[in-house]
Amino acid sequence: MRTELHIPSDLRFLNIVESWLLGALEVELGDRVDWPRQSNRLRLVLVEAYSNVVRHAHKNQPNLPVLIRLELKGQDISMEIWDHGQGFDLSTYLPPMPEEKQDGGYGWLILNRLMDRVEYRLQVNGRNCLSLEATLPTGESESPS
Fold it and tell me: Model-level pTM?
């Protein structure tokens, strides 16, 4: 299954983005995965990625579109989030130190903890691309937490 969504850079559309992603995956995955657990994981990933585009990459430019691509092959999920911002230089990223109680910087950490592969490409044909991949565990093989 492959699908994509073009949506404005406006947090008012966040519920639409969530419904699109989670609805498409639930239809395709059915009961092959522990859906409540995986949907929460994927919701957090998507909210983090989309809100970062809106708040940082497209700041004060709600008419700039965000492109979200989703591909599912078996249990393997792949998402791409494309923006038109100046981009973020990952070489300047410093992981947050909890004891310093900093406000930002946790997004990259969250994405890397929840997904198997996270890649960010700057200025590909005038846009930036955040690629996220994970293999979703089957419902039977997961042990309860």
Answer: 0.87
